[in-house]
Design a protein that fits this description.
globular, 81 residues, mainly alpha, 0% strand
């Protein structure tokens, strides 16, 4: 989960992060999705981020919403953070 910190946009990270989108751990799912979203705007990552953002009140919801930035979120509105 250091892709953004290290500035690595290597395509080699995509196959390493993709399986983590199905993790039982919500934080692992969230950070894998966030890194994939930053690297390549992965559609699968977008779905995971939207699902996490929909869980209002959970610690991951706000973080997922921030990762989506100007993208539409589950309530149909667009937010600029």
């Amino acid at each position: 989960n250091t892709a953004n910190v290290m500035g690595d946009t290597s395509a080699a990270l995509i196959p390493l992060l993709s399986p983590r989108l199905e993790s039982q751990d919500s934080f692992e799912r969230l950070f894998a999705a966030a890194n994939l979203w930053r690297l390549c705007r992965s559609e699968d990552a977008y779905v995971v981020l939207r699902q996490e953002a929909a869980h209002e009140g959970s610690p991951t919801a706000e973080m997922a919403t921030e990762y989506l930035g100007d993208t539409d979120i589950p309530d149909g509105n667009s937010r600029t953070l």
